[in-house]
Design brief:
By secondary structure, the protein is an all-alpha fold. About 45% of the residues lie in helices and about 0% in strands. The longest helix is centred in the last third of the chain and has 18 residues.
């Protein structure tokens, strides 16, 4: 099962991102490629505790729906996200891509004695954070056909 805790899985995500260019068209949704990478960066910063998101009272934070979405069901296309994760403005493309790799590896190799609550899913185990992180990034790379 792919997880951002697994180096081979992270390497795969990075290789796929390297195949993307800033003008690539999306298969769905409103993001441009630069906006999507910035969104992923803000999401990783949220997981690192650097971006605070207002918690949502959502059925996604309850068993069994939480586990179903984190581990099994495909991510819905066009699902709403925390507004805080849409606030970043894309910068220079290569810088955003480098920043993504740095944030991904910092999160994946760091010490996580206390991880923040996810705004939609609430408290997550380390395993759930790793799986959700991988699936979220994978979802957006697929959005741009990589």
């Amino acid at each position: 099962m792919n997880s951002i805790w697994d180096k081979a899985s992270r390497d795969n995500l990075e290789r796929r991102l390297d195949q993307l260019n800033p003008g690539a068209p999306a298969k769905w949704g409103k993001f441009t490629a630069p906006q999507m990478v910035t969104h992923l960066n803000e999401s990783l910063r949220m997981a690192l505790g650097e971006v605070k998101c207002k918690p949502r009272n959502s059925p996604l934070s309850k068993f069994p729906l939480k586990q179903l979405i984190i581990y099994v069901a495909p991510f819905p296309k066009g699902a709403p996200t925390a507004p805080e994760l849409l606030a970043g403005q894309p910068q220079e493309w290569n810088g955003e891509v480098s920043r993504f790799k740095e944030l991904l590896n910092r999160f994946a190799t760091g010490s996580h004695a206390r991880m923040p609550e996810h705004p939609a899913f609430g408290k997550l185990s380390r395993n759930a954070w790793g799986r959700l992180g991988y699936r979220h990034i994978d979802h957006h790379l697929r959005q741009f056909n990589v």
